[in-house]
Amino acid sequence: xxxxxxxxxxxxxxxxxxxxxxxxxxxxxxxxxxxxxxxxxxxxxxxxxxxxxxxxxxxxxxxxxxxxxxxxxxxxxxxxxxxxxxxxxxxxxxxxxxxxxxxxxxxxxxxxxxxxxxxxxxxxxxxxxxxxxxxxxxxxxxxxxxxxxxxxxxxxxxxxxxxxxxxxxxxxxxxxxxxxxxxxxxxxxxxxxxxxxxxxxxxxxxxxxxxxxxxxxxxxxxxxxxxxxxxxxxxxxxxxxxxxxxxxxxxxxxxxxxxxxxxxxxxxxxxxxxxxxx
Length: 278
Hints:
Number of helices: 8
Strand content: 15-25%
Order of helices and strands: EHEEHEHHEHEHHH
Oligomer: single chain
CATH class: Alpha Beta
Shape: globular
Strand order of the largest sheet: 2-3-1-4
């Protein structure tokens, strides 16, 4: 199968990037250390290969990033650095010896329509709730842009572990603490292109807060009206069950999918109205 073409309009574009782990394994299960590493790698990649970052969300088996890029080469160099370094760090932590990513990242350009851009941010913010793992996006323990956005912050710090310095120190027989040979890297968040004319207060009150509230409204509820039993994402994602052959989906799984689609349609309507007002 041939590779998909990577097309970016000549004037640049907002791009939604998605990348999944091999076999859907939970190699990105949230932890304090991994969260710092992901943000550190993302911040270093942004510093070395400058792109605009409008949002990000990292679940246990995939991640999404909204990037503002000028051309396909800029996107390629940024993603090549980010994916390769993050894969090495994930393999180091988990002991995984196979490839980390299932395939090349998928990059989908987003149109210049305000409704389309807001809808993609709404979809990104809904991660954690649309899977029924948490009640609100801010409760997701992994890397998620909803917390700094709701706090009105434009930057987030992470740690870059300098493995070259660690290797040279070990060659010299030196001992060092885990965080001694690290650098602080900063992820800079940019507003959506359609929101750049708004003040930070207007983007927060009229945009991010409404989208986060709409995302919380689509949290998966069981028939008793309570959050699904999968409320502890760390426990739920601690291991992957054995792989099984294909089977016919049960009626409950179809009902779950339908319920999520209905919830997302409500978010999309909210986003469209907000984009029209802006």
